Amino acid sequence: MKLLDQFKNGTLPPGVTNGQLWKAQKIKQAIIHPDTGEKIPMPFRMSGFVPFGTPVVVGLLLPNQTFSSTIFWQVGLNVLIKRAEHFSPATRILVQRFIPFPAVASANVCNVLLMRHTELSEGISVLDDKGNVVGTSKLAARHALIETSLTRVVLPMPVLLLPPLVMSLLERFTYRSWSRRSLLLHTARS
């Protein structure tokens, strides 16, 4: 915002490239409301549509909905959004870094349940030791869907959880080493 304001006022510092201006413009368009000029909360931005909307959609699609559960899923998100406004900046950064995991995990679970939902009502084939079909079982289908869903949640964990953890550790280390260096330079100059 500051960079764009400086550009409008003609007080742009030397060395600012067109690429930096375009990047600042894209960020502004993604975060700032064009009419009011206010910052758009994360759940209401286009980038927040899937991670914030998926749990509500899944909750609303659950079978045997009651009136109270429907109200919970529709109103519950609004309550969480209001609470999120009071998070500290560090908590907000952590939430932003870890949002891809619940989004991917919930999408994977939805995929399994939607693609294999008929198995719950019809059952799956049960085989004996020789591979012969001895019947069908709804209980075996339920166990198979639960195990498959859990696997689909666990498999993306290393890819989606390790990088944010490593990056936060690296940032802490870099910040600490930078602050030590600046302290040493400051004491050396004094």
Unreliable spans: none
What shape does the CA trace take?
elongated
Q: Could you describe the largest sheet, including whether it forms a barrel?
A: 2 strands, antiparallel
In sequence order, what are the helices and strands, one letter per element? HHHHHHHEEHH
Structural class: mainly alpha
Oligomeric form: single chain
Total strands: 2
Mean pLDDT: 79
Share of β-strand residues: under 5%
Radius of gyration: 25 Å
> End-to-end span in angstroms?
36 Å
Helix proportion of residues, in percent?
Answer: over 70%
Summed up, the helix count is 9
How are strands sequenced across the largest beta sheet?
1-2
Question: Briefly, what is this?
Answer:
This is Sideroflexin-5a isoform X15. The chain has 190 residues and is mainly α. Helices cover 71% and strands 5% of the residues.
Compile the SSE list and pairings:
Layout: H1 2-9, H2 18-31, H3 49-61, H4 67-84, H5 89-98, H6 100-115, H7 117-122, E1 124-127, E2 133-137, H8 138-154, H9 157-189
Helix pairs in contact: 3-4, 3-6, 6-8
Main attributes of the structure:
190 residues, mainly alpha, two-stranded antiparallel ribbon, 5% strand, Sideroflexin-5a isoform X15
